[in-house]
Each structure stands twice: as structure tokens, then as C-alpha cells.
Amino acid sequence: NTSPVVPPPEKKLKWGHDHIRKGFVALEALLVKCSGKYCVGDTVTMADLCLVPQVYNATRFKVDLEEFPTIKRINAALEELPEFREAHFSCQPDTPDELRGK
Questions:
Q1: Which of 25, 63, 67, 88 could form a cystine bridge with 58, CB 3.0-4.6 A?
Q2: In sequence order, what E strands does 1-102 have?
């Protein structure tokens, strides 16, 4: 891997976008084969716990989720679960006021 660990500030958005998108291309291909309602069948697994925050980051870095219909579908299903809604960073007691409920 020859990519820098920390990009300069002016390249941060593109760097994040490119690396998340690259990972999502690979993940989408895997999920097409093994997903059910969630990442691995119809039971929430550790893979689902990792997916939701990564989708949030993908949105922050302007990754077009339309390119990843399986990831998008699973994330939507997970966001319907009360446990995931309550665990969202914007609902935590130490979340800054300007980020609450977003």
C-alpha cells in the first residue's frame, strides 16, 4: 500500500471517498452472496455493527450509495432497529449540541 496514512487537508475528502468506495465495491460483491435481511443472513452480526458507522462515513465523504444497493438496503433495515437508533452517535449524552439528532 503506497497511499499516505494521513492525507493533507485539501485532499482529505477525495482520499476518504476513494478508500471507502474501494472497500464498498468489495463489500457489495460479498454481501450479494451472503446477505439476507442483514449482512449475514437474517440475524444481526458483528458485520452489521461495523456496517452502519461505515455507511455514515461514506455519506460524510460523499460516496454515492446508489452504486451499492445491497449495502444501502441492509443499512436501511438496520436503522429501523431501535438498538441501532438509540446507539447512533447523535443520541449519546456527550454528543455536542450542534450534532444532536442529525
A1: 63
A2: none
The residues, ordered by sequence, that sit 6+ positions from 35 with a Cβ below 8 Å of its Cβ are: 41, 70, 74
- CA dist., res. 33 & res. 76, Å (int): 19
The set of residues, in sequence order, having a beta carbon less than 8 Å from that of 64 and lying 6+ positions away, is: none
Other CB atoms within a 10 A radius of the CB of residue 44 amount to: 17
35 is written with which cell numbers?
446477505
Q: What is the pLDDT along the chain (102 residues), one digit of tens a residue?
A: 566 577 788 899 999 999 999 999 999 999 999 999 999 999 999 999 999 999 999 999 999 999 999 999 999 999 999 999 988 878 888 888 887 766
pTM given for the model: 0.85
Output Rg (C-alpha) for the chain, integer angstroms. Answer: 15
In this structure, what are the phi and psi dihedrals at residue 43, rounded to the nearest 5 degrees?
A: -120, 140
How far is 70 from 29, CA to CA, in rounded Å? 9
Which grid coordinates belong to 56?
455514515
